[in-house]
Amino acid sequence: MTHTSHTDHHFQIGEWHLRSGMPCQDYALSETYGHIAFGIVSDGCSSAGSTDIGARLLTSATAAALREIREFGETIAPETAIGYVRARQKEILDAAGSLLRVGQDDLLATCIHAYVDEHRGIVLVQGDGVVAIRLNNGNTIAHRLEWDGNMPFYPAYRNGRLDRFVEAHGADIDADRLTEDCFVSDGSREWKPFFSARRHSLKAGMGGIRIDIGPELLEETEFIALFTDGITQIDRIDWKDAISEFLAFRHVAGAFAKRRIMRGIEGMRKAGSVQQDDIACAVIRIARGNENKTGGTS
Length: 298
Known about the structure:
By secondary structure, the protein is an alpha+beta fold. The chain has helices at residues 15-20, 51-69, 78-100, 162-168, 202-207, 215-220, 239-246, 256-270; strands at residues 3-12, 26-33, 36-43, 111-116, 121-126, 129-135, 140-147, 176-185, 191-201, 209-213, 221-227, 279-288. Strands 1-12-11-6-7-8-9 form a seven-stranded antiparallel beta sheet.
C-alpha cells in the first residue's frame, strides 16, 4: 500500500530556563518530500555552553544528511543510512563550528531522528529522550531511553572527547550504562510494560540506539513522535500520560502537533502542573492509499 506522510514539530521553553533568563535549549525540525519524511529533536546540555546554538546546528546537520540520503534512492540499507548520518553530522558540525567560531561546549546536544519511506521507518536515539509509535487501532508503544547518572552521549563528543566520556562512565565500553523502558497503551490511557527494561552497553549507546519500524509495523502505524526528555519533567504528570495528552490530536492538518502540545501544556498548567524543562517534539503522520495529504510543517 502506498504511504504518504506529513509532519509537524514544536519546541517550547520550560520554567527553569524562563525564570533564569536563559534561551530554550531544545530544537526540532520535520520535513516531507514525496513518500519520504523525517523528524528530528535535539536537547542542549544545560550545564555546558550556549547549547541552544548546538541543538540548532546539530538538528540542521542531521536534516542536511537526511536530505542527502534521498538522493541515494531506495537501495540504501538502514545500516548504511545511519552510518552516513553519523559521519555527516560530524563533518557539518566541525565545519560550522570552525566557521562560526562556536566552542565545543556549545555543541553538546542530544539528537533523535526518525526517517520514513514507503517501506520502513528508522529511529536513531543519540543520547536520551522518548519515542512513541501510535498505531491505527489506538494503541501506543512508548520507548524511554535514559543514561546512568544523567550523563547522556552527545554526538559532538566524537570530536576528541570520547575518551573522557568513556572514563566518566567507568571506562568499560561493554558495561551497561543506558536503560530503555518500553510501555504500551491500549488507547484508554492505561499503560502496561511492553517488555522488561533493557540495558544497553556504553558502546551501543555511543553508536546510537536504533528502533526499527519494519514493513508490517509501518502498515499499522499512524504517528511516529519524538520527544526530548523535557516530557519527563512536568510536575505531577507521568511522562506516559504526557504522551497520551500530546498525541490526542483533534485535527491533523497544518501545525497539528504544535497546537496539541501548546494546548496540552496550558491545560496542565491550569491544573497546577508546570513544564519545568524545555520540550521539543517532532511528529510524522503516516497516511495511506488516496487519503488526502492535509498536513504540513509548522
